[in-house]
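Hi C.,

You asked whether I'd gotten around to modeling the 143-residue construct. I have! Everything is below, sequence then structure, no commentary in between.
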Amino acid sequence: MTNLPPTPFALTVRHEPPVLTVQVRGELDYDTSAEFTDTVVDHLSRSGQLRDLRLDCSRLAWIDSSGLSALLMIHRRADAIGAHLHLDNRPEFLDRMLDITNVRDHLTAPAADTAAAADERAEARVPTRAAPSAVRPDSVVRE
């Protein structure tokens, strides 16, 4: 069996308003999750008006529960400023972890709307009629 050296952890940050993109390389685990969280939160706080935070996971080598916790923290911080978190180029092992822990939809769903925007959408909705039943009571055949 060949033991390959671990991929060194590194973050590449690119800010092109209103998008902040962070490429994650290496293992996002107990040893690296604090650096990841600190770096991303620092950029979120300095980036002004952001619409999207894109985490490029194409070079992510591994993630453990500490890394997942860091993703949840980043999601909370992005949501607090109204930015949408995107987990781009997810490797299969990341999708598997997100599914097993039942957080894929939570982490990849759009950020929560402001109350005013939600009210505007609610007012704009047109009520819909319920679909008619496939079997009407008068069409039942009795023997």
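If it helps when you're writing up: The CA atoms of residues 40 and 74 lie 7 Å apart.

Thanks,
B.
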